[in-house]
Q: What sequence folds into this?
């Protein structure tokens, strides 16, 4: 395995050894998908109910499956909500794989979590996956009464490709003048289709778990064309947006060894310059998807920071949201 292991947080090294070399292409994709299809084993004992619904897609699109988690005994009054979009390089992953996290959020934050099983690339290219996410947002607002959701406190959250879709959804909702999003919580989001083997290289990023070659495959599958060409929509690759003003407040978390470090830092800086409130955490020695080592101290610290950002983002601000 390439890369400087001396830079990796020592508690994450066993994860690298377990995962082995990183590669993904059209031939390896079926096996990678199968590996990520498995639902976590024993269900936690949290007082949270979880159920799925098939909801209407955008006009002309098929129904979209969403996975909903909410407290069995919630606080009085409508609850804040997180529209969650899972990661997987646009080509793999399911909402069910994130069920432990979704249920923990619902319990710890006293909120409703709606996770979208959007259609995957390459079978469905852009804008299909983003349309599925927008359909879920429209449905959450339309069904807010039944779901006991406070429509002024709905935000988006996602990891990797899901973080990119969440950022794209924030841009799309702004362009269409709604629905209102209260926050965007982005964990090492996949934002820039131009990040690849031929892009300016940070010498310490992209060696582990999600590499430059894998990134090209994911983007090519999602876009339906080679990444890096002119005319890519900013709703597909949010760093292509020229105007970031008016977007919801953002939290971004990323590791120093993650391929997406530079594009995430640049996006955060551009949001700040556009007067969007931004909080960014950079975790030393962490590579992409480092939370797959759940007991590592850096993982616990990252999860705590991300959850705290969600908690603060969902607090009603007197005089503005009430």
A:
């Amino acid at each position: 395995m390439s890369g400087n292991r001396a830079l990796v947080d020592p508690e994450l090294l066993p994860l690298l050894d377990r995962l082995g070399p990183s590669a993904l292409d059209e031939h390896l994709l079926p096996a990678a998908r199968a590996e990520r299809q498995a639902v976590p084993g024993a269900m936690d004992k949290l007082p949270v109910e979880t159920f799925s619904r098939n909801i209407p897609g955008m006009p002309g699109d098929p129904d979209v499956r969403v996975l909903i988690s909410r407290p069995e005994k919630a606080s009085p009054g409508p609850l804040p909500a997180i529209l969650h979009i899972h990661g997987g390089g646009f080509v793999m992953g399911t909402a069910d794989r994130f069920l432990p996290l979704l249920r923990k959020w619902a319990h710890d934050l006293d909120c409703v979590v709606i996770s979208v099983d959007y259609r995957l690339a390459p079978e469905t290219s852009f804008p299909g996956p983003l349309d599925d996410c927008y359909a879920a947002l429209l449905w959450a607002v339309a069904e807010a009464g039944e779901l006991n959701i406070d429509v002024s406190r709905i935000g988006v959250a996602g990891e990797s490709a899901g973080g990119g879709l969440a950022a794209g959804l924030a841009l799309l909702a702004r362009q269409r003048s709604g629905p209102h999003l209260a926050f965007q919580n982005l964990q090492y989001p996949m934002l820039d289709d131009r990040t690849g083997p031929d892009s300016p290289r940070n010498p310490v990023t992209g060696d582990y778990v999600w590499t430059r070659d894998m990134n090209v495959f994911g983007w090519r599958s999602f876009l339906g064309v080679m990444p890096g060409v002119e005319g890519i929509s900013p709703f597909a690759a949010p760093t292509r947006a020229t105007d970031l003003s008016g977007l919801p407040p953002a939290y971004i978390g990323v590791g120093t060894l993650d391929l997406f470090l530079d594009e995430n830092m640049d996006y955060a800086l551009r949001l700040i310059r556009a007067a969007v409130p931004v909080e960014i955490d950079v975790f030393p020695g962490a590579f992409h998807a480092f939370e797959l080592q759940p007991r590592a101290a850096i993982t616990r610290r990252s999860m705590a920071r991300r959850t705290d950002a969600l908690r603060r983002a969902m607090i009603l601000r007197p005089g503005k949201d009430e």
